[in-house]
Design a protein that fits this description.
By secondary structure, the chain is mainly α. The chain has helices at residues 2-42, 47-50, 52-61, 71-103, 114-127, 130-141, 145-169, 173-181, 186-219, 228-237, 241-269.
Length: 270
């Protein structure tokens, strides 16, 4: 009985310690959250400019109306936005394969030079935001859809190449060693030994990235990279709040269409 009592007392103490740690953790979380909210929302907000509850409601009310005259102008930017996502994803996939090949430790031609280079390219692509890439390419090639496409491609390279490199590192080595044993070159190793194994993962990743790129392409125009974002920026500058709402609805419709297409693509090819 004494042993059982000691064991039960030990379990109760352990449970109390866990509860105390959980309580301390949640208390610290609430304190930090309140401190951050006070520093960012309370202090940094110009409440006099908002004008209280009536001012907030009035500001929201501006966007309730719809500028139906803008409807014919939405078609071309919507198509352009969709095409930016498609072409950008294709380019990103094309450039991702060699980067993944360099960044996969089991197939890279040089573990001391090319492997770190491949990993560095993955990190750079993922670290720089697509808006920053768009600003860079706008300054290089000018306004239009091209800088948006290049920005989406550069942003896609990091994610697709990283997932692809990890898939390559986890392949079954037997087919690769067999192809090399019979004198196969690196292209044959890639085409017959590696691609059949990573095909489902790469395809699922590309479809997922294309779905994300539709959202990215919708805001590229805010920095002059074409599409619906550029039309949104123009409507905001002209204080046409009904036009802003129309553009937002067009972006929402495009995202919903992208979700439906990506859903059926995954079911059809994966």
């Amino acid at each position: 009985m004494s042993k059982n009592s000691a064991s039960l007392a030990g379990q109760l103490d352990l449970r109390r310690n866990r509860q105390n740690k959980l309580l301390v953790g949640w208390t610290l979380f609430v304190i930090v959250a309140v401190w951050c909210a006070y520093g960012t929302i309370i202090q940094d907000t110009d409440w006099s400019r908002i004008g209280g509850r009536s001012g907030v409601l009035a500001s929201i009310g501006r966007y309730i109306s719809l500028d139906l005259k803008l409807l014919p102008e939405l078609l071309i930017p919507t198509i352009e936005t969709f095409m930016m996502a498609c072409v950008g994803t294709i380019l990103g996939c094309f450039f991702s394969l060699p980067v993944a090949w360099l960044g996969a430790s089991n197939v890279t031609p040089s573990k001391h030079i090319l492997y770190p280079l491949g990993r560095f390219l993955m990190v750079i692509s993922r670290s720089v935001h697509e808006i920053v890439w768009a600003l860079i390419f706008v300054s290089v090639v000018g306004l239009g859809a091209l800088p948006g496409i290049l920005a989406i491609a550069m942003r896609s390279v990091g994610f697709i190449s990283k997932i692809t490199a990890e898939a390559i590192e986890n392949i079954d080595k037997n087919p690769v060693e067999t192809i090399r044993a019979v004198g196969g070159n690196e292209f044959q190793v890639l085409y017959y030994g590696i691609l059949p194994q990573i095909y489902p993962v790469v395809l699922a990743t590309v479809i997922f990235e294309w779905d994300i790129n539709i959202r990215r392409s919708a805001v590229m125009g805010l920095v002059g990279a074409g599409g619906l974002g550029l039309l949104f920026f123009r409507q905001m500058n002209s204080f046409n709040y009904g036009g802003v709402t129309m553009v937002i609805l067009a972006i929402l419709m495009l995202i919903v269409i992208g979700e439906i297409i990506s859903h059926y693509l995954r079911k059809a090819v994966i």
